[in-house]
Amino acid sequence: MNKKENQAKIYRVITYVILIFLAVISIVPFYNMIIGCTHDNAALSTSFQILPGSHLADNYRRLQDNVNIWRGLANSVFLSVTYTVISTYIGALTAFGFAKYRFRGNKILFWIVLATMMLPGQLGIIGYFQEMNELKLLDNYIAILMPSFATPVMVYWIRQYIDAYVPNELLESARIDGCNEFIIFNCIIFPIIIPGVATQAIFTFVSCWNSYVQPSILLFSQEKFTLPILVQQMQGVYKTDYGVIYLGVTLSVIPILILFIFCSKMILKSTMAGAVKG
Length: 278
What we know:
Elements: H1 2-36, H2 41-46, H3 56-66, H4 69-100, H5 106-116, H6 125-134, H7 141-145, H8 152-165, H9 168-176, H10 181-192, H11 194-210, H12 213-218, H13 227-238, H14 242-271
Helix pairs in contact: 1-14, 3-14, 4-8, 4-11, 4-13, 5-8, 11-14, 13-14
């Protein structure tokens, strides 16, 4: 018994050492990015900086002189929040239809939705650009938001969540009480699946926030540019001014880090859905 306990302790120590090592590897790039925005270009060009510097205000001043970073931040917040709200609600409504309604072609349509997940979105960007050009929607946020009405990943994930957590008897009881289908979804189903919806909302928000290719192709006006486009522009404007580039990247990453810190428990709870039954 003692031998088994000693082996268990050794395995536990080895596991903690490996996890700590992986955590350090994951944290160092973020730490380097945050520390880098407080140093000038000369210091960053010579060696790896461990302690904060005193050039944060100078870097911020140069950043503001050439790039309207706060306008880009506001544009990214607006697009990401709007895209996420539309995508999660319509995706949840579609998933509810696939999960709880039996109609001809249900499985075929769902497999078609899954098949679209296998195709990279970049393959259709030329056709989508031409379509938006015909609709006169280029340089318009509507062109960015339109894909949010059909997100196959959202439909697939939430359908699995509904199958795991929403019994058919609940719907039958609501119909007997006289509820129509939209009341059932909005007042009964949606509150139950909020953990799954919230998890996908987080991932959708992050994906939209980090999106670069589509906004850079569809938007032309400087005042409509999102944060990733402005960060990319900084690399052309400042070239080797690493302190300013680090500052711009830090401002674009901090909202995502805050989001994950506050929502990590919800993500873990949702990813474990259906793993334990009883």
